[in-house]
Design goal:
The protein has 2 helices and no strands. By secondary structure, it is mostly helical.
């Protein structure tokens, strides 16, 4: 199955959203110290990158 650039960006967006949710949940439920804040912050960063990937669909 051949994937074009938009399909690759779509899959990358979905994976980044999944990883972002996973990191935020790990920060909230697994780590109760400062490391939890770090995990949640990185998860929000993954959301920002996924938003950029989604905005690029159709433009590259």
């Amino acid at each position: 199955m051949a994937m074009n650039k938009n399909a690759v960006l779509g899959w990358a967006t979905m994976l980044m959203l999944f990883m972002g949710v996973l990191l935020i949940l790990m920060g909230a439920y697994r780590y109760n110290d400062v490391a939890g804040w770090g995990f949640a912050t990185v998860g929000i960063g993954f959301f920002a990158i996924a938003w950029v990937f989604n905005a690029l669909k159709g433009r590259v």
